[in-house]
Amino acid sequence: MIFLLAIVIGVLFTVGLYMMMRRSLTKVLIGLMLLGQAINLLIFTAGRLQRASPPLIPLGADQISQSADPLPQALILTAIVISFGVTAFALVLARQTYTVLGTNDMNELRDTDIIPKYHPEIPPEEEEGY
Q1: Of 38, 91, 115, 117, whose CA is between 20 and 30 Å from 8?
Q2: CATH at residue 95
Q3: 14 lies in a domain?
């Protein structure tokens, strides 16, 4: 099972890095999400079942032979919440970039002299003077 998870983690890392190397801002965001999921799966795999007994056992209760470590699960839950927030912010930022500049291509976004198609501070009648 761990071997299968290692293969899935490797595939997610590879596809995520490949998508992050593309020119489209949307593909970069998809690659970022895949990379985040690969990291979550890696943490999940690292926190596998242990042969140790649970830390808190009531008196007179039967001991369980294996237990799950709650720390990796808490880390994954925190990482999911943080990645959701970062992804939502990045999607809004990418949408606003496309709305203002009219392009989603990373090579075109490198130019500093781009005249925006829409600028909220310039009234439409003054845009003719550009």
Answers
A1: 91
A2: 1.10.287.3510
A3: yes
How does residue 80 score in pLDDT terms, banded at 50, 70 and 90?
A: very high
Q: What is the length of the chain? A: 130
Segments forming the whole domain that contains residue 107: 2-51+67-129
**Cα distances (angstroms) measured from residue 28 to each of 11, 24, 70, 81, 94:** 17, 6, 32, 20, 10
Q: Is residue 56 in a domain?
A: no
* pLDDT the model gives residue 14: 96
Confidence of residue 120 (pLDDT cuts 50, 70, 90): low
Predicted TM-score of the model (pTM): 0.71
Computed over every residue of the chain, the mean pLDDT equals 82
User: Could you give the CA distance from residue 37 to residue 31 in angstroms, rounded to a whole number?
Assistant: 10
Cα distance between residue 64 and residue 57, in whole Å: 9
